[in-house]
Amino acid sequence: MTAKDLHPFDALVLMSFGGPEKDADVLPFLQNVTRGRGIPDERLVEVGEHYYGFGGRSPINEQNRDLLDALKQELKRRGLETPLLWGNRNWDPFLTDVVRDFATRTGGTRFLAIDTSAYSCYSSCRQYREDFASTIDTLSHEGIDVSFEKIRQYYNHPGFAQAELACVRRALEELSEQVGSLDVRRHRLLYVTHSIPQTMQDASERWTAGYRGQHQQLIDWIGSELGDEQPLETELVFCSRSGSPQTPWLEPDVNDRMEELAAQGVEGVITVPLGFVSDHMEVKYDLDTEAAQTAEDLGLVYVRADTVGTDPKFVAGLIDAALERAAQYRGEAVQSPAVTPEGALVPGSGACSTTCCLGSRQKPIAPAWEVASSV
To answer: What is the rounded CA–CA span in Å between residue 319 and residue 326?
Structure first.
């Protein structure tokens, strides 16, 4: 392959959430995350206790650096010379700053984004697209005209799916080593993802199977691949609920479900962080700290599966998805491999409808994005 395979894009951008690096960063980071919602600083300090317990340092930045290095090596292996940048939504390096610097230095203005969220909903897809729109608007006022595309949501891309399968297989082996043999009556496999408001879930179903449905499709595929290797009952549970108690969010919570299972005689559980691509704060705190403590209190054997991180299959799959989107942008017929029945539908290609995945605040996509994303 040659560099032209990513034509006409001038650079790839790894786009992520961002996170604080030290105690002093925590409050301003959370202010960025919640800007416009009217949450007082006193409440943000309380929320920040999760970060302060880890020295104010979110693991997500280091993990993104590792993923960035892995992606660069994969590009080099394929002979692709397209520059790879890293920009965040909520903390340094901020997307707008990174894109401004690149455009000013090189004159490159067309960017293809690889984000770190695999599934479809407002927070995991559309909001990133609004970030691109904000960058477009900001830089246009500075006389810099840029455009963005993004890869499809990759929850069912073979690269991500195969990497997740390997994570589950290792966790099953670990639990089996601890308990002797797996027993459907005594052990359970819990797939975990970030909870979202029910309104956001409903909106995600407008053009696709939706946030919860996409997770379930991948769970079903993993089960079919494992066959007799995996005798346990499985279910999808949630973590990291926030917001008003009066607002319905997806349930059950992983801790509540473990309590119910223990009462039913279950003796051991595996939690699989299916909704997360790396061990960032929701994994390190919600699963490795809080859920692990719940399991200990209940007397449950507890195994937490790996996240895909920099698994070579996952990394290669992201570059495959970038090549796929570049070819689509050029108007070429492309193969869009997928392991689930939904397949790689148009909303997952990056060229989403302007009404897809509206959030609970029903924030529209800025006109600049609609122009920049047209093929």
So the answer is: 11
Domains of the chain: residue spans and CATH: 3-154+311-372 (3.40.50.1400), 158-304 (3.40.50.1400)
Contacts of 309 (CB under 8 A, 6+ apart): 63, 66, 67, 277, 278, 279
The 187-194 sheet, strands edge to edge: 233-239, 187-194, 268-272, 301-304
pLDDT 10s digits, 352-373: 655 667 654 544 433 222 222 2
Alpha helix (H) ranges present in 20-89? 23-33, 41-47, 49-52, 60-77
* Cα–Cα distance for residue pair 172/105, rounded to 1 Å: 50
Q: Which of 1, 3, 29, 8 is nearest to 329 (CA)?
A: 8
pLDDT in tens, 56-92: 888 888 999 999 999 999 999 999 999 999 999 888 9
Cα(334)–Cα(97) distance, integer angstroms: 33
pTM (two decimals): 0.90
Tokens 């819990």 belong to which residue?
190
Euclidean distance between CA atoms 174 and 270, whole angstroms: 9
Q: How many residues does the chain have?
A: 375
Predicted confidence at residue 41, as pLDDT, reads 83
* Helix, strand or coil, per DSSP, at residue 98: helix
Among 46-50, 61-65, 270-274, 293-297, the range scoring the smallest mean pLDDT is 46-50
d(CA 32, CA 90): 6
Give bridge partners of residue 233 from the DSSP assignment: 188
